[in-house]
Amino acid sequence: MATPINQTRTDAKRKPRWLARTTAGAAATMVAAYGGMAISVDHSALTALEGLFLYLVGLGAATIANSTGVGGGVVFLPAFEFLGANGHIAIVAGQIVGMSFIIQSFGMSTGSLRWLHRIHDARGTDTGVPPAVFLRMLALVLGCALPAMLATQALHTSPPEAVLWAFKAVSVGLGMLVLVTSWLGRGRAQNRSHPTGVDYAALAGLSLIGGVATAFFSVGVGELVALYLFVRNFPLVTTAALAVIASAVSVLFGVWDHLLSTPQPWDILLYVVPGAITGGFIARPFAEMLGPFRLKIFAASWITLSSAYLLFLA
């Protein structure tokens, strides 16, 4: 009688088959895509030192993005703009957002799979809100963000100044709110296990704004969703996983607009993409090492400072 019981317990800890198949399929797709890139580009276009620097840019951006839910474009856009403007690497301004979409398609996809495995890990002590609730929240976010992003890509080729200013201002405001509420509620707040109707309404509104912003800047939906969930004190796993997966799905849908319309510097992407994949892989343990409070402060500080820089100085 002991064997069936032990077997049942072992089976209960197994992760869903669809997750294993999705992981294998995603890994094969990324290997094939990167292999095609590696075969078709000129490997001598950049020096080894330049390649190492680009790898580290991808690593750092993806680690931040996949541990906090903030899109890697928050790092990629200013980094590539600086490199292109100063003549260090040949990047045209019109390519920067497309490059960010491509890089995040690799890095955020890797991070999404890592967080999904964490959610379905029966040995974990905190897997966030119930899976059914998580799926409802994710469906709402994507249902609002994707149409907004795709419509924006179809209707606009450059961001109106008012939209650019509003997105940066909202990011600064939410970032400051996270910092204040985190310090005031340190050690007292309890994780929420279920969203309220107000939470669903807020996520829908922020996802619409984030979808428009993502079309223009490659970041937006994950950033706003993560900040709101941090403010509302949802579990770290729920916050990071929801924001990372929403960002990953958004860039995968939006990257085609750039692949089909703008030539990309594949020699540069050849070095950044592996860094992004590495960062996506190590980001989850990095977030868990920081813990909920320090991760909130880290994410909010990064978003507030980078958005304030772009708002007032860029």
TrEMBL record:
<feature type="transmembrane region" description="Helical">
    <location>
        <begin position="89"/>
        <end position="108"/>
    </location>
</feature>
<dbReference type="InterPro" id="IPR002781">
    <property type="entry name" value="TM_pro_TauE-like"/>
</dbReference>
<keyword id="KW-0472">Membrane</keyword>
<keyword id="KW-0812">Transmembrane</keyword>
<comment type="similarity">
    <text>Belongs to the 4-toluene sulfonate uptake permease (TSUP) (TC 2.A.102) family.</text>
</comment>
<protein>
    <recommendedName>
        <fullName>Probable membrane transporter protein</fullName>
    </recommendedName>
</protein>
<feature type="transmembrane region" description="Helical">
    <location>
        <begin position="128"/>
        <end position="150"/>
    </location>
</feature>
<feature type="transmembrane region" description="Helical">
    <location>
        <begin position="293"/>
        <end position="312"/>
    </location>
</feature>
<feature type="transmembrane region" description="Helical">
    <location>
        <begin position="268"/>
        <end position="286"/>
    </location>
</feature>
<dbReference type="InterPro" id="IPR051598">
    <property type="entry name" value="TSUP/Inactive_protease-like"/>
</dbReference>
<feature type="transmembrane region" description="Helical">
    <location>
        <begin position="162"/>
        <end position="184"/>
    </location>
</feature>
<keyword id="KW-1003">Cell membrane</keyword>
<dbReference type="Pfam" id="PF01925">
    <property type="entry name" value="TauE"/>
</dbReference>
<feature type="transmembrane region" description="Helical">
    <location>
        <begin position="18"/>
        <end position="40"/>
    </location>
</feature>
<keyword id="KW-1133">Transmembrane helix</keyword>
<feature type="transmembrane region" description="Helical">
    <location>
        <begin position="52"/>
        <end position="77"/>
    </location>
</feature>
<feature type="transmembrane region" description="Helical">
    <location>
        <begin position="204"/>
        <end position="229"/>
    </location>
</feature>
<feature type="transmembrane region" description="Helical">
    <location>
        <begin position="236"/>
        <end position="256"/>
    </location>
</feature>
